[in-house]
Design brief:
- This protein has 292 residues and is mostly helical.
- The protein has a single domain, classed as ABC transporter involved in vitamin B12 uptake, BtuC (Orthogonal Bundle), CATH 1.10.3470.
- It has a two-stranded antiparallel sheet.
- Helix 6 crosses helix 8 and helix 10 crosses helix 11.
- It is globular, with a radius of gyration of 19 Å.
- The model has no long low-confidence stretch (mean pLDDT 87).
């Protein structure tokens, strides 16, 4: 194997792993809402784009780094998520109509969010430039662009923090149990609806942070969220429903597969290969890689 081919392989691997960090950030909220709560929040990518625009506006006015903006304003996304789940529960889940009408509810939120962003910002692409956007470290023959490396570190920190929350706190264990046996939670004096409300709110808070990472990596426009609907559910299902580590594993597989495909065959083949891997994995292991 010549040096050029070796360099291409190493760069494709590193780029894929860095991309996987971002994929984990945009998918971990679905791992909570869909994987743990059985709430098919198809509007999740729209809230990611909303987080991008919030980061864009604050960065443009005050010059604050988008990641700092997202962390500071994540409580606002948390409260928004709590309010949306409350409406969803009262209108659909409490009546047992969450399967189809609940899905239509989230489709409605998706399009309303998109229309509001179009009215406010138009359809032009927006991008944020940070101090590290154009910085690339070169380690041997491997390029390490900081516009991907910084989101990777933030995503990994967020994902591992969520795993620690699930494994080491009573609330986290309640989140894991609420979709499986809500009656048992009631016997322990825990309100399952309240657990689902705050867990859903937490999933939306991750969307705000993922939105800041998105606008650092690429330009955004209001309808961009549609392109990520398939991706976030693919990562979640491939990794295993309800598994945070599974989300990381699924993101790594799809990220590396897309990177190698784009490098050696062209970017147009990347989605086909990624979802082909998803179908193959589900055929062999329907519960996903780390699903229960």
């Amino acid at each position: 194997m010549d040096q050029t081919t070796t360099s291409l392989i190493l760069n494709a691997l590193v780029s894929g792993l860095l991309l996987a960090g971002f994929y984990a950030a945009v998918s971990v909220g679905i791992a909570i809402a869909f994987g743990m709560l059985d709430v098919v929040n198809i509007a999740h990518p729209a809230f990611i784009v909303l987080g991008s625009y919030v980061a864009y506006v604050v960065n443009k006015w005050l010059g604050v780094d988008p990641i700092v903006v997202a962390v500071v304003l994540s409580p606002a996304f948390f409260l928004l998520g709590a309010a949306i789940y409350r409406v969803y529960y009262l209108a659909f889940e409490r009546r047992g109509q969450e399967s189809l009408r609940g899905l239509a509810f989230f489709f409605g939120i998706l399009f309303i969010t998109e229309v509001v962003l179009i009215l406010a910002f138009g359809v032009d692409y927006r991008l944020v430039t940070t101090r590290y956007s154009d910085v690339t470290w070169r380690l041997g023959g491997v390029d390490l662009p900081l516009r991907l490396a910084v989101p990777f570190v933030v995503s990994l920190a967020m994902t591992l923090s969520l795993q620690a929350l699930l494994g080491r706190t009573f609330f986290g264990r309640s989140m894991l149990a609420v979709a499986q046996d809500p009656f048992a939670l009631q016997l322990m004096g825990v309100n399952p609806v309240r657990v689902k409300q705050w867990a859903f709110a937490l999933s939306l808070a991750t969307a705000g942070i993922a939105g800041a990472l998105l606008i650092i990596i690429q330009p955004v426009q209001p309808s961009l969220g549609r392109e990520y609907i398939g991706l976030v559910f693919a990562v979640t299902v491939l990794g295993g429903l309800g598994s945070i580590y599974g989300t990381l594993a699924g993101a790594a597989i799809l990220g590396v597969a897309e990177s190698f495909t784009s490098t050696f065959f062209g970017p147009s083949w990347a989605p086909a290969v990624s979802f082909g891997l998803l179908l193959a994995a589900l055929a062999l292991r329907p519960a996903g890689l780390l699903g229960r």
